[in-house]
Amino acid sequence: MEARLTGKVAVVTGGGRDVGRAICLGLATEGAAVAVNYRRSAAEAEAVVKEIVAAGGRAIAYGADVTDYAAVKAMMEQVAADLGGIDILVNNAGLALRKRFVETGPEDWHSQIDACLYGALHCCHAAAPFIEARKNGRIISLVGDSSRVGESGLSIVAAARGGTIALMKSLARELGRSWTTANVVSLGLIETQHSDKAWLDANRDKLTRAYPLRRLGLPEDVAPTIVHLASPGASWITGQVISVSGGFSMVG
């Protein structure tokens, strides 16, 4: 059976680690050529590229800060030139700083809004012409469930990601004429190698009680939903917010 994404080109922001890495590997397994974006660690992104290439896939690492529109635009143009176009954009990069709202200040607001909301805006705007030109494109943005139900200590990132949800719904309507879908995957707490392990261990019992499945998420729990939304099987799903959260939120 032919892989579902053979011939497609995907850009994954923050693709060098954790959830981003799992998404890159999942898309590559289904045949997509993957542009692995990173901001700081070229070594992590190159490790993902090597893993994909070793398995017979095609991937290239691209450094660009999603908060910098000029850098994002240049990256998308280079990806299209190197890999032959862009079919899939996964907005995975972001920043969340846990702090009570009254203890935050403009620096906290700008850093999180720039990464989470402007990052998605920049990537969507720079990639959309390429995606629309290829037809049947996919835009998928990751957010946290705090953006849907609210969460103490995460007010700023929740506000930024709430804007991303509104952006995706609007793009779903606007880009539908080119058969481009735009969806959101909303996550519960994902345990990664870069998590604050001491904090997680100290609060694990309390945290897991909030999840009907009684465990935190893993990067491998997220990637299959992203791959499905990128595939032909999801061609009639657009403008939706899909939770992958172990039941943390059950928003109708």
UniProtKB/TrEMBL annotation:
It comes from the Bacteria. GO terms for molecular function: oxidoreductase activity. InterPro entries: NAD(P)-bd_dom_sf, SDR, SDR_fam. Pfam families: adh_short_C2. Gene3D superfamilies: NAD(P)-binding Rossmann-like Domain. The keyword Ribonucleoprotein does not apply. The keyword RNA-binding does not apply. PANTHER family: 3-OXOACYL-(ACYL-CARRIER-PROTEIN) REDUCTASE, 3-OXOACYL-[ACYL-CARRIER-PROTEIN] REDUCTASE FABG. Belongs to the short-chain dehydrogenases/reductases (SDR) family. This is SDR family oxidoreductase. It comes from Neoroseomonas eburnea.
